[in-house]
Specification:
Blueprint lengths: L11 H9 L5 H18 L1 E4 L6 H7 L5 H8 L1 H4 L11 E4 L4 H13 L10 E2 L18 E4 L5 E3 L4 E8 L5 E7 L4 E7 L1 E2 L6 E2 L4 E4 L10 E7 L7 E2 L1 H7 L5
Antiparallel strand pairs: 1-2, 3-4, 4-12, 5-11, 6-7, 6-10, 7-8, 8-12, 9-11, 12-13
The chain binds zinc ion.
The site of zinc ion has 5 residues, from loops.
């Protein structure tokens, strides 16, 4: 098979999957099924989305049976709820994906997801600084020193789980990411997203401010392993693990 250029997966390969399932009995059935899934995953063709791509463009160029609608169905987990919004770098499975293939594609897509700084600003109060002004006894996030009205960005693609007033955090946005971690942005002067909304890396989610319990404008930024207060981890270490220089 040529390394370059478009190609269709031969239809005959699909027959092998059906044939492999022809078996009877509990344990005896399990092995051919695993084998079939593995073989199918190995032959599945993936396509990495480039800037300017649309699902219909990809479906046509790659000769996907069923067109863009089938392509979307097969890759809904990777694409998200909006078929019109496909992100460059997303890996799509062409020609019908087995569940195992979709999961594997998703996992590799999330590890290569791009991350950005939440705001173009320098670091103020660091993570874990001790102090009586924090209810946990230490600072649960990292502060970025920034004037009110500065654009705040989602650090990575994800889904907004809450957006609005949250007591001492003032106006706050919390986003859940593909790896299950949560990023939190506090003290905002305005919130530009709403709960349930999908966001992309670098998308503006609001403006910095000085709402809530603050002595001046800054971005209080946390990474959490759950939606709950106290499950924080080092935000800068997390960003650096994902290739962000902060
Ligand atoms: Zn803070």
């Amino acid at each position: 098979m040529p390394a370059k250029g478009k190609h269709r997966r031969p239809k005959s390969q699909r027959v092998t999957r059906a044939a492999a399932v022809v078996s009877a009995g509990g344990a005896a059935l399990a092995l051919p099924l695993i084998g079939a899934t593995g073989a199918h995953a190995a032959t599945a063709t993936t396509y990495t989305v480039k800037a300017g791509d649309t699902l219909s463009k990809i479906a046509e160029a790659q000769g996907v049976d069923g067109g863009w609608k089938q392509l979307y169905q097969d890759n809904k987990a990777a694409i998200g709820s909006d078929a019109a919004l496909i992100k460059p770098g997303t890996k799509l499975t062409l020609g019908g994906a087995a569940k195992a293939t979709t999961t594997a594609t998703q996992a590799s897509a999330s590890t290569t997801t791009s991350y950005v700084k939440p705001v173009a600003a320098s670091i103020g109060t660091p993570y874990h600084q001790n102090g009586s002004m924090w209810s946990s006894g230490y600072h649960t996030g990292t502060d970025f020193t920034v004037a009110t009205g500065t654009s705040l960005k989602a650090i990575a693609a994800g889904t907004v789980v809450s957006a609005g007033w949250d007591g001492s955090y003032g106006n706050e946005v919390v986003i859940q990411h593909a790896d299950g971690k949560y990023s939190q942005y506090a003290h905002m002067s305005s919130v530009g997203v709403s709960a349930g909304q999908a966001v992309t890396a670098g998308q503006q989610i609001g403006l910095s401010g000085a709402t809530g319990n603050v002595t001046g404008p800054h971005l209080h930024f946390e990474i959490r392993t759950s939606p709950n207060y106290g499950s924080d981890i080092d935000p800068l270490a997390y960003l650096r693990q994902h290739g962000v220089s902060v």
